[in-house]
Amino acid sequence: MHGRSDAPIRGPAFLADGGAMGVLLSAHDWDSTPLGAPLAWAESLKTLVAVMFGANQPMFIVWGPERRLLYNDLYAQILGERHPAALGRDYLEVWGAIGAGLAPLVHRAYSGRPVHTADGEHVLHDGGDGAGAARFALSLVPVRDTAGHVAGLYGACTALAGQEPAARRPRETEASLRDNEERQSFLLDLSDTLRPLTASAEIVEVASRRLGERLGASRVFYAEICGSLMKVEREYARGVGSIVGEHSLAAFGPDLLAAYRDGNVVAVEDVAADLRFSDAARAGLGSREVAAFVDVVLFRGAEWVSLLAVQSAVPRAWTTAEGNLIRDVGERVKAAIERARAEAALRKSEEHLAAIFAGASVGLSEVDAAGRFLRVNTELCRILDRPAEALLRLGIGDVTDPADRSPSAAAMARALETDRSVALDKRYRRPDGSAIWASSSIRRLDDADGRLKSLLIVTADLSRRKEAEQRLAESERRLQHLNETLELQVSERTAERNLFATIVERTDIMVMAADLDYNILAINKANADEFARIYGVRPKVGDNMLDLLADQPEHQAQVRAVWGRGLAGEEITLVEAFGDAGRARPHYEISFRTLRDARGARAGCYQFVVDVTERLRGQAELAQAQEALRQSQKLEAVGQLTGGVAHDFNNLLTIIRSSVDFLRRPDLPEVRKRRYLDAVSETVERAAKLTGQLLAFARRQALKPEVFDVGQRVRAIADMLDTLTGARVQVVTEVPETTCLIRADVSQFETALVNMAVNARDAMDGEGTLILRVTCGAALPAIRGHAGSQNPFAAVSLIDTGTGIPPEQIGRIFEPFFTTKEVGKGTGLGLSQVFGFAKQSGGDVDVRSTLGAGTAFTLYLPEVRSQERPAGDRLQDADRAPLGSGQRVLVVEDNVGVGQFATQILEDLGYQPTWAANAEEALDELGRAGNRFDLIFSDVVMPGMGGVALAQELRRRAPQVPVVLTSGYSHVLAQSDAHDFTLLHKPYSAEQLSRILHQALGLGRTAGASADPS
């Protein structure tokens, strides 16, 4: 059983080389432990398991706060009879009495300090049967998670000379192997039986019966601990009475309770002969026909939550295997009950959400990509006048008015292609043939993998608003007609006035006219009724509005102010709330028009009023629903960004950590040492590039813009792109002869072109044509909903003949870490760097793509008209940086490690450095002897006074002393490039530091200089 097995392992790939232990780990019921299924384990744990299985010495892993034990075949030999029951259990509990000696070592390792014992103080009894003692050298190495916390321990156990464990000798018999296989089969079958059960009582009943029948027990029960009571709901009983009910824990006695709370398995072979029981306890057990028992206590963290008891009516000797089986069954029962209760809580939560959906005050529906209804709420059924079961057999087009089906389908198509809401007003057709106006907002819903799940449609009833608008338009049309015919015959005017009076009196729109002194000239019934409803007084022709509200000064002031605008000649439409809150205070849409006399002089004004309270409420609820959707997508984007950063940096740190571990070896050959040093250097470069791309995307990169001819720069980089894309890709350059100047960071501009070229090369699968085209004086078009500009821009286009980009991916290609390439082929930050650089440089980037034909990326950067001399080719780094000659350098750095390292580098380069821990200390040094330093080398981001402020103060005090600033990122530098000091970007090399200091000392203070280590 302890040897390696060639049997194939049905399980995760990282268990494939695990031999016999690989088989056991794959078959173990991990769902009943806090570790969960192996496929969901942390990547660091999976890696450790794979390394452990590949080791040729006894290795083991202690994981999580519960100290769950995993081990390889060689360590299984050391465990002896404790194997295989030790798998997945508490490491200290597995070793029993020996665990007391191991506990301080384990606690020290969990505190973050490695433990190594080489003097044989770790004594293990071979096989746990007392056959002999063996001494081992023990190593426990803390393993940290991504947050820096200790997640577990990686252990190695090496036998000292002459102490080979006797367990290496084969001792498993065919019978023991068969018993173990039967035990594993029983546990797996029990797990399969419990998995579909949803009621805790049913789970307990089935597990108790199965365990009782297997062990031939008289009684088996699972009890939950509630304060000072033990509750038994179900049991398995054969030939004995029932003990279902509540029992006091005090009846167990202090000794057993202490053992329970320590997590120990309590096995009693003969109650009558066991001295731990008082006479009363022994009598109580006897009355319940208990002569022998095994109790296994179960914990959730440090809390004792339940107990599994197996009892016999006659004395019985319990074996270790039976105790282990009872423990394993108890863990599975506890896990199954917790799972069932969690699923019940989830169902209740889903029912609550469904109730919210059904009770919303706006129409809500969920449809598939074809527009078929998947779910509708009560309000939508009311709006459409159809029952839910009828709607669920229809699609959105079936209930849309034929005249609006085309714009409705177009809106659905737009919603499928974007992550934003698409809104439109449309008419729905009810079963009786009538149409109803509604405002709809459509938004796509994606699953966790970003695939389309469905569309959510929020529908607000606009029928009242549309009807009011139609009535208002009709009334205004009629009023206009009446005004145009005032000069007709007296009889005709009288008839028209009568008609007008009838219309105004009978319309639902509230109408009132007043003279310049607020006296009511005309008022219809709808207005008079509403005035009385909200103010408690009924107006009539001849009344003065202000006198009617004399006892309501706050409302009188509001009426005076609003009518005052109309009486002053303003023809306006406004929305405002009126009325006494104790009665009613609706919102109205009010339109004022000037009233003129026969001579054309202003004589007053009249108003049309529509109650829009319900419309405003619907608009507010619609906006609230849309905002909730936007917040959900923001959280998803944050989760994607943090996950991507952690993944890429963990990959880089793995290379650095492994290389450093090997470099510590004194016997490492020089060739391999150079190889590991190169790997560390290359990884640092990749990390610097990754942080630069992140800062560029966030528009926080400290750019150093300079004026240069974009055409000249594209010609210069074309040869490099030709090499980069490979021999099968033809690079064609189309650059105008005229000078086209832009102001941008040259390094970031070239990086953007390289990123777009690499993207094009991969899209063409290494074969095709890549066109680099420069257009001067181009206008900036509207891109992704942002307004364009007619100012001149330089447009740099990269056009490929690749496969093109699917429409559903166009909107996501500039997201950080979004990539369609396979793992290891790209970080997903290339195009996000292009986007961030373009935005931070005052421009934008556009993409046009046709599937099967190719893609065109166009980078728009503002043109400049400058007398500044365009930048030439960038200086290439020399093979060896110049050394100093004793110049005195003041180093200002708040980070102790960086300060010491920079000081050491400067000494090695031939300078005389002095280190100040902050800006205030640096100013004190200068105050004592300001003229004894030849140069100041300062960090930018420091507590208190920052590097830029320090440099400005130094310029005031000692303008002749050059200042060089260094930073990996600073919001001050990212917001403006006009700091006017030499800047060295972190991370930097010794050669780059020496070169920038040499330039600063030779030229004095160089405005705007920079050094980019990338």
Describe the overall structure.
The protein has 1014 residues and is an alpha+beta fold. It folds into six domains: 13-159, PAS domain (Beta-Lactamase, 2-Layer Sandwich), CATH 3.30.450; 180-341, GAF domain (Beta-Lactamase); 357-467, Beta-Lactamase, CATH 3.30.450; 507-692, 2-Layer Sandwich (Beta-Lactamase); 701-782 and 789-862, Heat Shock Protein 90; 888-1001, Response regulator (Rossmann fold, 3-Layer(aba) Sandwich). Helices cover 41% and strands 24% of the residues. It is built from 29 helices and 34 strands. The strands form seven sheets. A six-stranded antiparallel sheet has the order 8-7-6-11-10-9, sandwiched between helices. Strands 30-29-31-32-33-34 form a six-stranded parallel sheet, sandwiched between helices. Strands 2-1-5-4-3 form a five-stranded antiparallel sheet, with helices on both faces. Helix 7 (200-215) runs antiparallel to helix 10 (320-359), helix 19 packs antiparallel against helix 20 and helix 20 packs across helix 24. The protein starts with 18 loop residues before the first helix and ends with a strand. The model is unreliable at 1-10, 125-132, 162-173, 870-879 and 1003-1014 (pLDDT under 50).
